[in-house]
Design brief:
CATH architecture of chain A: 2-Layer Sandwich
Helix content of chain A: 25-40%
Radius of gyration of chain A: 15 Å
Largest interface: A-B, 23 and 31 residues
Shape of chain B: elongated
Helix content of chain B: 40-55%
CATH topology of chain A: Alpha-Beta Plaits
Radius of gyration of chain B: 25 Å
Order of helices and strands of chain B: HHHEEHHEEHHHH
Strand content of chain A: 35-45%
Structural class of chain A: alpha+beta
Oligomer: heterodimer
Structural class of chain B: mainly alpha
Strand order of the largest sheet of chain B: 1-2
CATH class of chain A: Alpha Beta
Number of strands of chain A: 6
Strand content of chain B: 5-15%
Chain lengths: 141, 205
């Protein structure tokens, strides 16, 4: 399996969770375009994250390594950057993502585990960030 | 036949082979940390030198039985990438006190909440370890603020400093800390993996 597929699957988890969508005032039946604007795939914040587009989250992969026990398994990382008007709101968003994705699995293909989280300054006025990392084992065949 | 001949263990051989496995995994983990650190730096032009000088890998230490990996960078901008600059810098930096006591520090910044501030007239040593000269016309002026409100000054500053976004307060990225901490589980897990999968049985002879 590949990163694009993995991100699609994680997007689906977040985009179908009422609590996670509610931070943006969306519901599971909301338009997919609105959901995609809220949960964006990609890392760059330029022009995407502003004090008008928050709350918003960015979803992207980071490099990992092949598992030394089973070389057909790749342990990659998925990072979710949550942006909101204050530290707490950003941390609550990231916390919900963590709740949904820690031990999330697609049988025989993916297993995700929480790895680390940290808050960070964005340099954008009125926007705070919280970043959460997951180790995701993928069966690459 | 003596018992020790039936069940002898090639300790040296096992040690050598095990060490090679550990070295290989440490090398791989360093690569991962390195590439994660690079990702965290983003595409900011100011950090070009940091991205370029990031290096890492196995550190060979003769004869002491340790396997060590190292990830680092030689670019001075790395301090700013890790801890931020100007009014945005992270006050938790354990080296901040010694930085403020050093010749690099501009005393006039304290009055502006540590924002980037014009230096008094004369020569000073920059963080780039070069000696610079200033006429002190902007001594004590908050340059972050001036950049924001005076486009003419901003254009001039960009020309004389020969770089994008001069006098910009940069947010701490903590790219090194994050790269290490977010890989803590992976590092422990993969080192355990070597221990679990190593075929000690191959060395009974």
């Amino acid at each position: 399996m590949n990163s694009a597929d993995l991100l699609n699957q994680i997007f689906a988890v977040l985009a179908n969770d009422a609590t996670f969508l509610n931070f943006k005032g969306l519901t599971p039946t909301s338009d997919i375009a609105d959901k995609a604007a809220y949960i964006q795939k990609g890392q760059e914040t330029d022009g995407v994250v502003t004090n008008e587009t928050i709350p918003i989250c960015l979803l992207y992969p980071e490099a990992g390594t092949a598992d030394t026990r089973t070389l057909t398994v790749y342990i990659g990382k998925v990072v979710i950057d949550c942006f909101a008007a204050n530290w707490n709101a950003a941390a609550v968003m990231a916390g919900q993502a963590q709740k949904l994705l820690h031990n999330w699995h697609v049988h025989g293909i993916y297993v995700a585990r929480f790895a680390y989280d940290t808050s960070f300054k964005t340099g954008i006025v009125g926007v705070k960030g919280h970043r959460v990392f997951f180790d995701v084992n993928s069966y690459i065949g | 036949m003596a018992l020790e001949q039936l069940l002898s263990f090639d300790g040296d051989g096992a040690y050598e082979a095990f060490k090679q496995k550990v070295e290989a995994i440490v090398e791989k983990l360093c690569d991962t940390i390195l590439s994660n650190a690079k990702t965290s730096l983003g595409s900011d032009e100011f950090y070009e030198a940091v991205r370029g000088s990031l290096h890492g890998g196995l550190v060979k230490m003769a004869e002491d039985g340790m396997v060590t990996g190292q990830v680092g960078t030689d670019a001075w901008q790395a301090f700013i990438a890790e801890w931020g600059s100007g009014s945005e810098m992270d006050e938790d930096n354990p080296e901040l006190v010694s930085y403020k006591a050093s010749t690099y520090w501009n005393e006039l910044r304290s009055a502006n909440d540590d924002a980037i501030t014009g230096r008094p007239a004369g020569q000073y040593l920059g963080l780039d370890d070069k000696v610079h000269r200033t006429y002190g016309k902007l001594a004590g002026v908050n340059l972050e603020w001036l950049m924001a409100i005076d486009p003419e000054f901003a254009a001039w500053a960009e020309k004389v400093t020969n770089g994008p976004n001069p006098f910009k307060a940069r947010v701490p990225l903590h790219f090194m800390r994050t790269a290490l901490e977010s890989n803590r589980n992976l590092i422990m897990d993969q080192l355990n993996g070597v221990l679990e999968t190593f075929q000690f049985g191959d060395f009974f002879i």
